[in-house]
Design brief:
Layout: H1 2-23, H2 25-43, H3 48-64, H4 66-71, H5 79-82, H6 87-122, H7 136-164, H8 175-201
Helix pairs in contact: 1-7, 2-3, 3-7, 6-7
Length: about 200
């Protein structure tokens, strides 16, 4: 298991580095967007290349940061329901979800997106807009994003199994559950205190 955990750490490190680097593209997109708006208002002109650059940058952030988001346990999930289950049940839900849904979904998308990108690359596909950008790098982002997400799914599966075997500390899995329990306990104490205050007033 330690060998698999070493592989998991490598995957986590790579996806963290790529995710943090790609997140800076948000700033670049904001600067380009602001520049386009100023030029359009002041000079009454615009460039399709710069407009498409914004879309490319947004796509790059979305695709290249998806694996990092999964690593940080920040993907949307139904915490209201998930927090009601015991920790072991939630671990099994993660294992089944990664095995039967996430990983097959990534494989399916890679199977479909690779020919989609390759055809565009071989044709050196260009934007249909005048002065637009070359298209295939944007299509490659789909392939790259799902490759990273697939490997991060493998890493999460390894870590979840290790957690259930007691070989790894659960950093994320119990957080929301314990927070919900703590909040419920706090509200109960407040209610009790309020009841005592009301009784004292009487």
């Amino acid at each position: 298991m330690q060998g698999l955990l070493s592989i998991s750490r490598v995957i986590d490190t790579v996806n963290t580095y790529i995710g943090k680097a790609a997140s800076w593209l948000i700033l670049v997109a904001v600067v380009i967007s602001a520049g386009n708006a100023v030029i359009r208002k002041v000079f009454s002109s615009s460039s399709n290349a710069w407009l498409e650059a914004q879309w490319y940058l947004f796509g790059a952030v979305f695709m290249l940061c998806a694996a990092w988001t999964l690593l940080a346990n920040e993907h949307i999930r139904i915490d209201v329901v998930n927090s009601l289950f015991p920790k072991r049940v939630r671990n099994w839900i993660d294992i089944v979800g990664h095995t039967l849904f996430l990983l097959p979904f990534c494989i399916l998308l890679l199977y479909d997106s690779w020919p989609f990108f390759l055809k565009s690359y071989l044709q050196n596909e260009q934007s249909m807009n005048a002065g637009g950008l070359v298209v295939w790098p944007a299509k490659f982002l789909v392939v790259a994003g799902f490759v990273l997400l697939f490997f991060q799914g493998i890493s999460e599966l390894i870590k979840r199994i290790a957690i259930m075997r007691g070989e790894l500390e659960d950093v994320h899995g119990g957080g929301h559950h314990e927070m919900a329990e703590a909040e419920a306990a706090r509200l109960l104490e407040v209610a009790k205190a309020q009841g005592l205050l009301d009784a004292a007033k009487k």
